[in-house]
Structure formats: C-alpha cells, structure tokens
Here is the input.
Amino acid sequence: MRVISYNLRKNHASGELAELVQKFSPDVLCLQECDTTDLPVDVGHLRLADSTKRNRLGLAIYFRTDRFSARETQAFALKKSLHDHVLKPAHERLIGTRLIDHETDRELVVASFHAAPLTARNSLRREQIRAAHELLLTLGHGLPTLMVGDYNYPLFHTNLTQRVNESGYDLSLSDRRTYTRYKFFRGHFDFATSVGLGIDSVETLDRGASDHMPIMVSASYREDAVAAA
Here is the structure.
C-alpha cells in the first residue's frame, strides 16, 4: 500500500497533484494546507473521502476507489498554539478515514495531520500527536492506523520517537529531509506514525512548488492486524 502525503504550501502546489498521482499511482493521498473550497472530487484514480471545513489551512484525504471503500471520515480539533489563536480559523488539524481494503478483506484508518507551527513549543506538538492518536481510536479501536503529514518537528526525533513508542505507535522518517528551504529550519518535517502496520519505506519525492517535499509511505499489514468484520 502506497500513501503520499503533501503539504501544498497554502495551496500553491495544488496544480501538481494530477501528475503526482499519475506518476506514483498511490492508494491514498493525504494533503495539508489545501484550499478545501476548490478541491476536485477526483484526482486521477483517487476519490475525495472528505476534507476539513473550519480551517484556513485545510486537510484532505483521497483514496483509490478500485481497492477501498470509505466507511467513515472525521475531522478533529487539537489543542491550539498562540499562532492558531491569532491567525483564525484554525480549528481542525487532523482528519482520519476508516477504509475497507477489498484486496485483503481488512479495515484500517488513514489520517492526515498538521501540527502547530515552529512558533509553538515541541511539548505542544507532542501533546497534539498524542491526542491525535487517541482521537483516531474513535474511528476503529485496534485497527491498523497510519497518520502522515506535516509534524513540524525537525529536531530531537529521539525524544519524540520514545514518546510515540510509549503510546504503542512507531515513528518512521523518510530517506531524505523534507524541508530545506531555510538555513535554520531544515530536516524531516513530514513523516509517519503507525500502529499495526509494517513500514517498508518512506521516500522523499522531488520538490515542487511547495516549501515541503511530498513523501511516499509504503506499508504492509502485520500478521496481528485486525481483519474486517
């Protein structure tokens, strides 16, 4: 299963989506900083599951219709940073979709996540990540879950990995940095956290019009993952 995550930089990179989908043929596409009032229903072979409605930096999830059915999608609010209080609206920083995988007769949850910006403390972002993992349980407790997106966490990954592992999740960085535009803010901003899935690879794709590079996560089910009812 291939999942692409892309921060569109306030929708500047939206024109690249069709080519990206055609070139890499992902099963799921997760977006951050998109204009949800102007999203197409279909991007190539992918169908829009849903998008946020109350955030100036929108989130969205697309899925492959010949493999998956979308059972339920929910958007969630997370604890706000000072930046969010000043630049409104910023209510939803997480959207998750429960999918039925008809190829394997399993269910899973895939989520698009956008953490608070670098003006906030790492402690707030860790709290947002922890809360996001808990909220996704409402879509399917015990189901394999993959949360991808812009974590805005370029440094101190060892500490973050430990915290994520304590909650039962794995943290997977990509093979190359995903943000290199500014001298003092470089690193792995975009990555994946998961449970019940084996992460085979996380590849940083070529730069486009965004200040973030898209990543492509290749994942497979673990033997103990829950099958569809």
